[in-house]
Every structure is written in structure tokens, then in C-alpha cells.
């Protein structure tokens, strides 16, 4: 049986027919139709170009060249998993290597009764009703406001849906131990493509903290990740997504969240790695009195491209959203920030605040920023602000006049700029590790000569 594609995808997605049978071995048979529908939808539009509004600043020609083969298992030792990148986090951990479950790297903490942390495949045997209700239903823009809604990379991920992670927390349960969903990538036999999928469901009054990490160990990887989050009545979730891919890798990710009445979502999105990086964070406020906090910290150097698109759908009244994204760019790095806020007709008493700030450390770094508000209600408070600049010379002079070398002075100022976001992370091991990584990243950036010597 084939999918009868009217137009076959070039590059990424072109090997679907070859791996379709293997994909069918994961999960129930009903997923096969879901995968086939998804690849047909992706093939109909293909890999975006700069002519596509939602991707106009993102160079993705590398995905057309066909160099990324479907990934297969690689060997990663526990020492490598715990000593590299973000290091060891005291957490209940489920690990994946090249998209395949790696139980030898997992840490099965004793979790409260009723909590499920496992693979999608295991989830269909234990909590099939939860997966049937939510998997593939959250990370979609179908039926929502907007004229340029684009789900193609969600469709691509769904087409290759296999092993993935599921966290289910039943009604009223508070998970004190952080949850770490760890995706490790190693392309030691040539460039490869992986498609991580994560589903997080918290029922009414449940609480949890989740770290989702994407770490590149070796080689060139195309990582197309999708995370779906459902928060029930008064549920609370802190979701920390950390991306530290290899210096030549491509990372395109979507986090789609749905919030019910009185729920609180805190999203901490941190990007320190990758060659081409794109994050879409989309949150639908489907109940009154919700709170949404979107925090982003991005550091790019060399020729990195870091693109963040956020979207908050205020569909119900009396909801609050607060957004702070900060980006530091050096060398020839390029940044993109597009922050959309939709306020629906019935969403009176909406309070939405958005702040986007970028720090450019070289004259060849650049960022394209676009705050975007579409308001269809009358009684609302919506504000947005965007600022782009360089380090203040008076602040540098103050530190240097007290004997602090230029490189260290600049690192301290940049660290203070980014640390405002990192300080919002309440998982101590993760926050400390990211602070160390930030200093290491800034140390190499700060080896550049002072601005007056470069003509900046």
C-alpha cells in the first residue's frame, strides 16, 4: 500500500515510502492513516522558501539537498549523557537517542500514583484514552485566527511519528520531582533527520515541572520536534525547552499548548546551539482566568540563525499573558522575533504584555523583529515593546575604570542582560548549568576587540 502522493516532497520527507512500514510498527494501526494524511499535507506545500511569509528570514535550502537520511540508533554512554552540555539534572528522566527510546540512560524515579512517564508506544497500552483525546489535536492552527497559519513542520513530524515521550499527571496530583525529557542526537554515520514528539497532559489541579532538552553530541542533524501540552482546570506547568544542537545542525520545533480555566503555563525557551534554529511557541487560552508566561533567552554567534515565533490566542475573557524574549548576537549571527497576540471578540478584560530586546555585539550581527497584535475586543490592555541596541559605553567604562578587563566587563554586562530570563527557571540544576554555559558562550564572543577598534 502506498500513500499516492500527488506531489512528492523533495529533500526532507522524500524517503517516507521507504520507512513507512517501519513507522507502522510503532503504535496502533490507526496511526498509519494519521501519518499518511500528514505526509500528503506536507507534500502539498513542501519546504518553505523566503517567499513564504512565516519563513521569510529563514534560509532552509539545506533541507532540499537530500543529505539528511532517516536516523537510526547510536551509542551514547551514561557518562556522555550526564557530563556533556547541560550535565546531570536531579530529575525523573526519560531519554531518547536519535529519536529512539534509551532506557539505559533513563532515571526511573518513584513518581506519585497515577502519573505516567514513558514512550508513546507504552502509553497506548496504559493511557490510550488520553492519547486518543490529545495526540495531534493541540499543535495545530486549524480553525484559529490568522491569514498565514502554517502547520507544515507539524505535519512533517506527524508523518514520521514513532517513539516519543508522554507525561500524564492525573487530577489533583503534584509532582515535586522535576521531569527531564532528554533528546540526545548523534549523527556519526552522516547527516540524519529525527522527529521527536512529546505529549504533556496535566488534569485539573495537577502540577509539574518539565525540562525538555535537545542536545547534539556529534555530526549534523535535522531535528523536527513537536511538543503538545494540555493543562486542565487550575493546572500549573513550568516547561523549560533547552536547545543545544551541534554547530552545523538544523532545529525546527513547535510547542503547542492549550490552557483550560484558571491554569498557569510558564514556558522558558533557551537556545544556545544549532546553525539554523526555529522555535514556534503557540498557546491557546481556552478558559477564563488563565496566566501565561513566555520567557526566551537566545545567544547566537558565528553565522547562526535563531528564529523565534510566538503566538498567544486570547480566546476567553479575563486572561493574562506576559512575554519577555531576549537575544544576544555576535559575529554574523542573525536573529528573528515575531510575536503575535490575537484577542478574540469575546475575550474582554484581556491583559497582554510583550517585550522583545536584542543586544548586538558586532556591526555584522542583525535581527528582524515584528510585534503583532490583532484585537477584536473592546475592553483590553495590550502592550508591546521592542528594542535593539549595543552595550552602553558608559557601563563598560565604569567596569573597566575599576580594573576589570574589557572581555570580562563585556561578559558581565551581557550576562546580566540574559540572566533576567534564566533566573525565571525554578529547576536549580538546570538554571546553574545554563548559567555556566552562558559564561562559556560569552567568553568566546568576548574575545573580539573593543567596539572602538572595530569601528562599531
Topology record:
Blueprint: H1 16-23, H2 30-45, E1 69-70, H3 78-83, E2 92-97, E3 100-101, E4 116-119, H4 120-126, H5 128-134, H6 152-159, E5 165-169, E6 179-186, E7 192-194, E8 197-202, E9 207-218, E10 221-231, E11 236-244, E12 250-259, E13 264-271, E14 276-285, E15 291-300, E16 305-314, E17 320-329, E18 334-343, E19 350-360, E20 366-375, E21 380-389, H7 393-400, H8 406-422, H9 428-445, H10 451-454
Parallel strand pairs: 1-7, 2-6, 5-8, 6-9, 7-10, 8-10, 9-11, 10-12, 11-13, 12-14, 13-15, 14-16, 15-17, 16-18, 17-19, 18-20, 19-21
Antiparallel strand pairs: 2-3, 4-5
Helix pairs in contact: 2-6, 7-8, 8-9
Textual characterization of the structure:
- Strands 1, 4, 5, 7, 8, 10, 12, 14, 16, 18 and 20 form an eleven-stranded mixed β-sheet that branches. Strands 3-2-6-9-11-13-15-17-19-21 form a ten-stranded mixed β-sheet, with helices on one face.
- The protein has 456 residues and is α/β, with parallel strands linked by helices.
- The protein is globular.
- It has helices at 16-23, 30-45, 78-83, 120-126, 128-134, 152-159, 393-400, 406-422, 428-445, 451-454; strands spanning 69-70, 92-97, 100-101, 116-119, 165-169, 179-186, 192-194, 197-202, 207-218, 221-231, 236-244, 250-259, 264-271, 276-285, 291-300, 305-314, 320-329, 334-343, 350-360, 366-375, 380-389.
- Helix 2 (30-45) packs antiparallel against helix 6 and helix 8 runs antiparallel to helix 9.
- The chain contains ten helices and 21 strands.
- The protein has one domain (16-454).
Amino acid at each position: 500500500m502506498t500513500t499516492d502522493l500527488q506531489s512528492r516532497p523533495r529533500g526532507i520527507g522524500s524517503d517516507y515510502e521507504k520507512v513507512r512500514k517501519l513507522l507502522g510498527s510503532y503504535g496502533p494501526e490507526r496511526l498509519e492513516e494519521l501519518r499518511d494524511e500528514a505526509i500528503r499535507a506536507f507534500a502539498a506545500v513542501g519546504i518553505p522558501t523566503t517567499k513564504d511569509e512565516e519563513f521569510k528570514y529563514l534560509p532552509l535550502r539545506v533541507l532540499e539537498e537530500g543529505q539528511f537520511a532517516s536516523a537510526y540508533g547510536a551509542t551514547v554512554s551514561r557518562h556522555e549523557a550526564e557530563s556533556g552540555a547541560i550535565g546531570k539534572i536531579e530529575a525523573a528522566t526519560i531519554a531518547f537517542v536519535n529519536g529512539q527510546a534509551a532506557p539505559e540512560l533513563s532515571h526511573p524515579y518513584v513518581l506519585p500514583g497515577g502519573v505516567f512517564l514513558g514512550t508513546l508506544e507504552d502509553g497506548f497500552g496504559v493511557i490510550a484514552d488520553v492519547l486518543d483525546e490529545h495526540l495531534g489535536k493541540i499543535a495545530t492552527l486549524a480553525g484559529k485566527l490568522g491569514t498565514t497559519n502554517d502547520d507544515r513542520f507539524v505535519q512533517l513530524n506527524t508523518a514520521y511519528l514513532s517513539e516519543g515521550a508522554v507525561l500524564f499527571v492525573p487530577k489533583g496530583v503534584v509532582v515535586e520531582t522535576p521531569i527531564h525529557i532528554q533528546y540526545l542526537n548523534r549523527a556519526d554515520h552522516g547527516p540524519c533527520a529525527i522527529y521527536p514528539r512529546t505529549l504533556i497532559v496535566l488534569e485539573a489541579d495537577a502540577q509539574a515541572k518539565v525540562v525538555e532538552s535537545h542536545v547534539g553530541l556529534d555530526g549534523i542533524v535535522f531535528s523536527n520536534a513537536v511538543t503538545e501540552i494540555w493543562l486542565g482546570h487550575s493546572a500549573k506547568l513550568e516547561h523549560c525547552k533547552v536547545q543545544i544542537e551541534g554547530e552545523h545542525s538544523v532545529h525546527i520545533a513547535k510547542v503547542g499548548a492549550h490552557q483550560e480555566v484558571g491554569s498557569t503555563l510558564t514556558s522558558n525557551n533557551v537556545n544556545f546551539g544549532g546553525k539554523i534554529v526555529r522555535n514556534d511557541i503557540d498557546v491557546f487560552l481556552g478558559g477564563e482566568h488563565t496566566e501565561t508566561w513566555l520567557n526566551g533567552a537566545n545567544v547566537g554567534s558565528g553565522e547562526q540563525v535563531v528564529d523565534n515565533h510566538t503566538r498567544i490566542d486570547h480566546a476567553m475573557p479575563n486572561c493574562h499573558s506576559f512575554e519577555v524574549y531576549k537575544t544576544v548576537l555576535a559575529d554574523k549571527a542573525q536573529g528573528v522575533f515575531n510575536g503575535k497576540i490575537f484577542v478574540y471578540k469575546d475575550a474582554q478584560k484581556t491583559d497582554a504584555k510583550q517585550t522583545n530586546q536584542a543586544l548586538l555585539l558586532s556591526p555584522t550581527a542583525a535581527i528582524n523583529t515584528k510585534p503583532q497584535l490583532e484585537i477584536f475586543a473592546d475592553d483590553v490592555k495590550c502592550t508591546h515593546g521592542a528594542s535593539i541596541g549595543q552595550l552602553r559605553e558608559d557601563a563598560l567604562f565604569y567596569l573597566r575604570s575599576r580594573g576589570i578587563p574589557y572581555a570580562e566587563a563585556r561578559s558581565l554586562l551581557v550576562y546580566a542582560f540574559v540572566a533576567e530570563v534564566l533566573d525565571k527557571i525554578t529547576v536549580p540544576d538546570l538554571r546553574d548549568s545554563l548559567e555556566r554555559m552562558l559564561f562559556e558562550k560569552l567568553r568566546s564572543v568576548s574575545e573580539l576587540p573593543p567596539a572602538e577598534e572595530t569601528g562599531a
